[in-house]
Write a structure and sequence with these properties.
The complex is a heterotrimer.
Chain A lengths: L2 H55 L5 E11 L2 E9 L1 H24 L6 H20 L3 H19 L6 H32 L4 H6 L8 E2 L3 E2 H16 L8 H4 L5 H10 L4 H8 L1 H4 L3 H24 L3 H21 L3 H28 L17 H15 L5 H15 L5 H27 L7 H4 L7 H27 L15 H8 L3 H8 L3 H19 L1 H10 L1 H8 L4 H48 L7 H21 L11
Antiparallel strand pairs in A: 1-2, 3-4
Helix pairs in contact in A: 1-2, 1-3, 2-3, 2-9, 2-14, 2-19, 3-4, 4-5, 5-7, 7-10, 7-12, 9-14, 10-14, 12-13, 12-17, 13-14, 13-16, 13-17, 14-15, 14-16, 14-19, 15-17, 15-19, 16-19, 16-20, 17-22, 22-23, 23-24
Chain B lengths: L15 H18 L7 H20 L6 E3 L4 E3 L1 H27 L5 H19 L3 H20 L5 H32 L4 H9 L5 H22 L7 H8 L2 H26 L4 H23 L5 H21 L3 H28 L15 H4 L1 H15 L5 H15 L3 H27 L12 H19 L2 H9 L2
Antiparallel strand pairs in B: 1-2
Helix pairs in contact in B: 1-2, 1-4, 2-3, 2-4, 3-4, 3-10, 3-13, 4-5, 4-10, 5-6, 5-10, 6-8, 6-9, 7-10, 8-10, 8-11, 9-10, 9-12, 10-13, 11-12, 11-17, 12-13, 12-16, 13-15, 13-16, 13-18, 13-19, 15-17, 15-18, 16-17, 16-18
Chain C lengths: L2 H22 L3 H21 L3 H26 L3 H30 L1 H4 L16 H12 L1 H22 L2 H4 L5 H6 L2 H4 L15
Helix pairs in contact in C: 1-2, 2-3
The chains are: A mainly alpha, B mainly alpha, C mainly alpha.
Chain lengths: 658, 484, 204
């Protein structure tokens, strides 16, 4: 099997599964459907590991080839092609592995749902789209994958479309992402305009051509392109202010919250910026924007996690905050650290979501943490795996998240971009907040007095194997993946063949200077600020949620204004509601009056109707139905054509002399 | 008098598909005579079998080196073979629907299938014709079969009227065509395409010869334009489409277009390619007229068959635009367009035939109200077809229009392209109107429409091909481009 | 003027005159007879061109078979000619105008200065023992064998078409179907319908 066939198989086997599940799911029954789709993803997973082995471990060459020429427009070649290097290989393994786990988990989670086969079809389709996105070698296909994952995401957010909140969240996700996509599309258009190609490698090798070129009022083209592309990333990766759709997306079933809205799709933005690192490196302005937006997201979205009481929303806000961390890493040119955090985060966040889902299933779809408590006895596997996930998330030394997050903080520390010191404080403070809300939720759900109502309490038991197996399978990498991969990934060049870092941005260089070994980071951590921030966070969480729960209420009342700000999510939603929704409604009304009523109705519609009537009045006398009229008309046309050919036209045949 | 005529059986093998088809026509005709009513379906299956074998034989000839036999009057090249495969293939598809229609309307007769096979034979002769005479004979074989097929519903006066109109006007068009042929023969001294081509390409050709060639050319173009249904020789199209039994409409609106295109290529490109400057203006005028009249007049139709007739006229305009460019890729785009058009048209008429149940003649556009609720699958196929015909990506209809326009623009006719696009947008209105009826209006009938499995299967394949080929158009595009 | 030329002009005149008479004649039977006359004139012209076979075939097939059949049909159908004629005069001026222009344009292109004897060489005269038929047969069955076969197919279609469109097997023939009679059952013959009692409105 040649390599391109391997790549094709990786992408197409989930698609095949999705098609079978989608069209024949009802016919085949649940069992066959999930077997087929899981097998499809399993094939992808195995091949992804094979690809990972070839490219990363054995240091194979970059594969860059067009598989299929879709269209040739002028000089522009639109193709389906694969660019597979180490970055892609890492993404492939992460996506396929998490997707496989989620597929298995779904068997248990969606057990009683009517749309069982449809759901499998969707998640397999999503997996296909995500593969196309990460394997793409051109912007066209990237955009296709980008939109396709978005599409499946909307379908899945609104999966329970009988719930009004789900439909609303669906719409919100769609609209907000349109804003991001618009920027993204503009960015791609600019690339096409200035480079005349959509192929990554061609664009990257011609970057010199736009050096110093400015558009509009003197901004560098490359800066504008990068910022526009980043706007796309902001939509997909839910960065402030385009983050509002992600908490809402929790209306969807939990497996997709884990797969799409935590582990894979939302990191597409991070992946995209890393892929475009040769371009971003050319613009400090764009990088600063990236970093600042990331820091704002990391800090402020974390704060919101503190006041949430819905178990999935807490995890959702922590996702937002972690995405902020990744974005910050991108901003300080530590792309490999961002990808590193993306990978560890994918494992432990998927784990946390699936664990939350396990709790939700056990609680009969109760999601309010205030109605839980003391679950650790009844659900030991969920409890332990949640603990692993939480420790990984808060960056407890030794766990996966510790390495990646610590590296981000250090990278910011070494950055020379403007505002990087402020960003440093923000990310350090973020550590405290992360620890606080994560442990708060953990304590409230699993420890303390049981607040479960007596009816449900009797039924709570550990979830089925199909649910616990993915938890365990994800818990293992959540512990060890950071320890194993930090050195090769960040410092000994796993990602070197896909990421470009300019010599002006020295964070990575300095990081590698201080880095000794993964093991030595653990004792070293005890001397660092972030560690103690984390400990402080854990202690505070313990204090407020277990030891002195009444203090929490006291503080809530004492600082009710602050609480109000947090509880209303900084008013983003209300702002959107008032400014955009109402504003657009008014604008729409105005446009309707002016353009629809006057221009379209009066001029275009009535005008074209008149035009049609006019043509009709010419044609109708001809189309009488009488055969001799037709015959005469034919001869008459012949006469006109003959006359025209002979005496005029471009080549008059006879010169008439009068 | 010596004759360098050689008769070798081996050399006739390149005409094997035609020979086979003619033999099976005779055999089927005789077998049909002796069939009792219990076995009358046998004619249908024999027809399908014959068409299939003919198609396979033609398929095997793809890639055969260009061969000319029968004293320069029969040519076998890739275009001929590929077109023959498409002609037999689409005829087979049409026959699947046809059987259903004929049974529903008690028109089922063995002669019907024999006539269809004869029409296919005529088209194959046209596709392989390499002299004016064979092209003309092929055309007449095709036309005569079609006249009879239309009139086969002789109890419906509208069908007989349509057949008669088509016959009379077709005879006039044939007369004009023959007149043109005689002029070209008179001046070049030959009816063989290769000789005519050599004569027309001769740089020492004098102005008298050019004049008469060009004069004959006008008659030739008019003759073919009539068969294609280009404005102003289109008047028969709506009347015949409406009057003919729907199964005949389906057949005559699709497959003969391939043959007519082949005839255009043989006469105008292979034969009189050097006269391109003279006929391109004529083509430009005819195609713009067709696009505009077809798009606009269709808006006012309430009968879906008439509407599709005008839509066909507008598609024909696009096909002819491909010839205006005068470059090989332009002709290739026209071929691509024709193949796509046949694909779409088959599906459209397929839905109409399925809806044409007894007592429910679905040829009014308002009959499609609420179709999506009664039969969502058929409505979906119709939706795909309509979007494709309107030229909406990613359906195949978009690429056919796109490739034509691209060629037109690169040949420098930017204004023409803009006009064509404007009318394409206007034509989108009536395609969308059907979609609106199907999906947004309430039905006044609530019977579900059932259809036999073979029809459902064919229709589903047909509909999904429109989408799939639309997603991966390069294969068909490459085939079309490689034929010339 | 040679004798041949005199004959040519004579036959040509008859040809044109009889064709015109055919169109203008009020009686359809006369039209048919004038058509026969014009066929004869055309055949004579062909004879002058040494196309004896064609001339004879024209008379044998068209005059001998087709036109006689045509006359039969006309006599049997008894077509009323006044309705056909009513519209004729209305369209005459415009039709005539178009015809004149078309003829004028065609004669500009195909006229004597394009096809005259000074431009096109005169056909070669053959010896008196020259066989036109052998020559035709040689061409027809060798070089033109393919179109010849196709013409046969065309005739086959014509036969099929004629039979298909004229032949009405099930309407005229009332045959007994024994199988059907044997298999018939009581419920096929008698159908019980229950009709709800009602009153007409005006009786209420």
């Amino acid at each position: 099997m040649t390599l391109d066939n391997v790549y094709l198989t990786i992408a197409l086997s989930p698609l095949l599964g999705a098609i079978i599940a989608g069209f024949f799911g009802g016919m085949l029954g649940r069992k066959v459907t999930h077997t087929i789709t899981i097998f499809g993803v399993l094939v992808s997973t195995v091949f992804s590991m094979y690809v990972f082995n070839i490219h990363v471990l054995e240091g194979g060459d970059i594969f860059n080839n067009n598989i299929y020429t879709w269209m040739q427009v002028g000089g522009l070649n639109l193709s389906v092609g694969f660019l597979v290097d180490n970055l892609t290989s890492v993404m492939l393994v992460v996506v396929s592995f998490v997707s496989l786990m989620v597929h298995i988990y779904t068997i248990g989670y969606m057990d009683k749902d009517e749309g069982y086969t449809k759901f499998f079809s969707y998640i397999s389709l999503f997996t296909f789209a995500m593969f196309m996105l990460v394997m793409s070698n051109n912007f066209m296909q990237l955009f296709f994958g980008w939109e396709a994952v978005g599409l499946v995401s909307y379908l899945l957010i609104g999966f329970w479309h009988h719930k009004e909140s789900a439909v609303e969240a669906n719409l919100k996700a769609f609209l907000v992402n349109r804003v991001g996509d618009f920027g993204f599309l503009l960015g791609i258009s600019l690339i096409l305009m200035y480079f005349g190609s959509l192929d990554y490698i061609e664009v990257f090798s011609n970057l010199g051509a736009v050096e110093g070129v400015t558009i509009l009022d003197g901004s560098l083209v490359i800066t504008v392109i990068c910022i526009l592309l980043f706007v796309g990333a902001m939509g997909k990766s839910a960065q402030v202010p385009l983050h509002v759709w992600l908490p809402g997306s929790m209306e969807g079933p939990t497996p997709i919250s884990a797969l799409i809205h935590a582990a894979t799709m939302v990191t597409a933005g991070i992946f995209m910026v890393s892929r475009m690192s040769p371009m971003f490196e050319l613009s400090d302005v764009a990088l600063t924007v990236v970093m600042v937006i990331g820091a704002i997201t990391a800090l402020f979205m974390g704060l919101l996690g503190i006041v949430q009481n819905d178990i999935k929303r807490v995890v959702a806000y922590s996702t937002l905050s972690q995405l902020g961390y990744m974005t910050v890493a991108l901003g300080v040119s530590a792309y490999s650290v961002a990808i590193f955090h993306l990978m560890t985060h994918a494992f432990f966040k998927a784990l946390l979501f699936l664990a939350a889902g396990s709790v939700i299933v056990a609680m009969h779809h109760e999601q309010d943490i205030r109605n839980m408590g003391g679950l650790y006895k009844k659900m030991p596997i969920t409890y332990i795996t949640s603990l692993v996930g939480t420790l990984a998330l808060i960056g407890f030394p030794g766990f996966a998240g510790f390495y990646s997050k610590d590296m981000i903080i250090e990278a910011v520390h070494f950055s020379s971009l403007p505002y990087s010191d402020l960003v440093y404080y923000a990310v350090v403070a973020g550590v405290f907040i992360t620890a606080f809300y994560s442990l708060r939720m953990f304590f409230i759900v699993f420890h303390g007095k049981s607040r479960v109502d007596s009816h449900t309490a009797g039924h709570i038991k550990e979830s089925a194997t199909s649910i616990t197996f993915p938890l365990i399978a994800l818990a293992i990498p959540s512990v060890i993946i950071g320890y194993i991969t930090i050195e090769p990934m960040l410092f000994t060049g796993w990602l070197d063949n896909s990421i470009t870092v300019s010599s002006r941005h020295s964070s990575m260089a300095e990081l590698s200077y201080i880095f000794d070994s993964a093991a030595s980071m653990i004792p070293h951590a005890l001397l660092t600020v972030p560690f103690w921030m984390m400990v402080l966070g854990i202690a505070t969480a313990w204090l407020f949620s277990l030891h002195k729960t009444e203090w929490a209420d006291a503080i809530k009342n004492r600082f009710h204004r602050t609480y109000y700000v947090l509880d209303s999510l900084y008013g983003f939603d209300r702002f959107n509601e008032i400014v955009f929704v109402n504003g657009v409604k008014k604008l729409g009304l105005l446009l309707w009056k002016v353009s629809d009523m006057v221009i379209i109705d009066k001029i275009v519609v009535n005008g074209s109707a008149k035009f049609v009537g006019f043509i009709g009045s010419i044609i109708r006398p001809i189309q009488t139905g009488y055969v001799y009229h037709y015959a005469f008309f034919m001869i008459f046309s012949l006469l006109i054509i003959l006359t025209w050919t002979l005496f005029s036209g471009n080549n008059p045949q006879l010169n008439v002399e009068f | 008098m010596t004759n360098n005529f050689s008769f070798e059986i081996n050399s006739l093998l390149v005409a094997l598909p035609e020979i086979f088809l003619l033999s099976s026509i005779v055999i089927v005709l005789i077998i049909d005579l002796f069939l009792t009513s219990k076995f009358r379906q046998a004619t249908y299956y024999l027809t399908q079998l014959s068409l299939m074998v003919t198609g396979i034989l033609s398929f095997n000839l793809i890639g055969h080196p260009e061969t000319v036999i029968f004293s320069n009057s029969f040519i076998l090249d890739n275009m001929a073979s590929v077109f023959k495969v498409f002609i037999t293939g689409s005829s087979m598809v049409a026959m699947v629907y046809t059987r259903h229609y004929l049974l529903q309307h008690s028109l089922y007769r063995g002669e019907y299938f024999v006539l269809v096979m004869l029409a296919v034979l005529g088209m194959m002769v046209m596709v392989s014709g390499y002299s004016m005479l064979t092209l003309y004979m092929g055309l007449e074989i095709l036309s005569l079969s079609l006249y009879t097929l239309i009139a086969i519903a002789r109890n419906r006066s509208i069908a007989v009227e349509a057949a008669l109109k088509y016959f009379v006007l077709g005879a006039i068009a044939s007369g004009l065509l023959l007149y043109g042929i005689s002029m070209v023969y008179g001046i070049s001294g030959s009816i063989n395409i290769s000789d005519i081509s050599a004569f027309a390409h001769d740089p020492s050709i004098n102005s008298r010869d050019t004049l008469i060639l060009n004069f004959g050319l006008v008659f030739l173009v008019i003759g073919i334009a009539f068969k294609l249904g280009a404005v102003p020789f289109h008047m028969w199209v709506p009347d015949v489409y409406e009057g003919a039994p729907t199964s005949v409409t389906m057949f005559l609106s699709t497959v003969p277009k391939i043959a007519a295109l082949a005839m255009l290529v043989r006469i105008l490109v292979d034969g009189l390619g050097s006269m391109h400057d003279y006929w391109s203006d004529l083509f430009l005028a005819l195609s713009l007229l067709s696009i505009s009249v077809g798009s606009v007049v269709a808006l006012m139709q309430t009968n879906i068959k008439r509407m599709l007739a005008y839509s066909t006229i507008s598609h024909v305009g696009f096909i002819m635009l491909g010839f205006v460019t005068g470059v090989v890729s332009g002709y290739g785009a026209a071929i691509f367009y024709v193949l796509v058009y046949v694909l779409m048209s088959l599906a459209a008429f397929g839905v109409i035939i399925i809806l044409n149940n007894k007592g429910y003649e679905a040829d009014q556009i308002s009959d499609y109200k609420g179709l999506s609720k009664n039969s969502p699958w058929f409505a979906l196929v119709m939706l795909i077809v309509m979007l494709s015909m309107a030229g909406v990506p990613p359906f195949i209809g978009f690429y056919s229009k796109f490739s034509i326009l691209q060629e037109v623009v690169s040949a420098g006719f930017i204004t023409v392209a803009i006009i064509a696009v404007v009318f394409a947008v206007i034509s989108a209105y009536y395609y969308l109107k059907i979609i609106k009826f199907m999906y947004f209006d309430e039905s006044d009938k609530d019977e579900t429409i059932s259809a036999p499995m073979d029809i459902k299967l064919i229709l589903s394949i047909n509909g999904s091909l429109i989408l799939v080929v639309g997603l991966f158009p390069d294969r068909l595009m490459n085939i079309s481009m490689s034929l010339l | 003027m040679e004798f041949e030329q005199i004959l040519f002009y004579l036959f040509s005149f008859w040809f044109i005159a009889s064709s015109l008479a055919m169109i203008l004649s009020r009686n359809t039977a006369f039209s048919a007879l004038f058509l026969i006359l014009s066929f004869f004139s055309a055949a004579s012209l062909w004879l002058l061109l040494e196309a004896e076979f064609l001339a004879i075939i024209l008379i044998l097939v068209y005059v001998g078979a087709v036109m006689v059949l045509f006359l039969f049909v006309i006599k049997m159908l008894d077509i009323e000619d006044s309705t056909l004629r009513a519209k004729f005069t209305g369209y005459l001026p415009i039709g005539l105008g178009v015809a004149v222009i078309v003829i004028a344009e065609m004669s500009l292109v195909l006229g004597v200065d394009q096809f005259g004897l000074d431009v096109v060489p005169q056909p070669i005269r053959h010896a008196s023992d020259y066989s036109n038929i052998t020559e035709l047969a040689m061409e027809l069955y060798t070089i033109y064998v393919y179109p010849f076969e196709l013409a046969a197919v065309l005739l086959l279609i014509a036969i099929i078409a004629a039979i298909t469109l004229i032949h009405r097997p099930d309407k005229r023939a009332k045959k007994q179907s024994i199988e059907e009679q044997v298999n018939t059952q009581a419920k096929d013959r008698v159908r019980l319908v229950s009709i709800a009692p009602y009153k007409k409105k005006d009786e209420q």
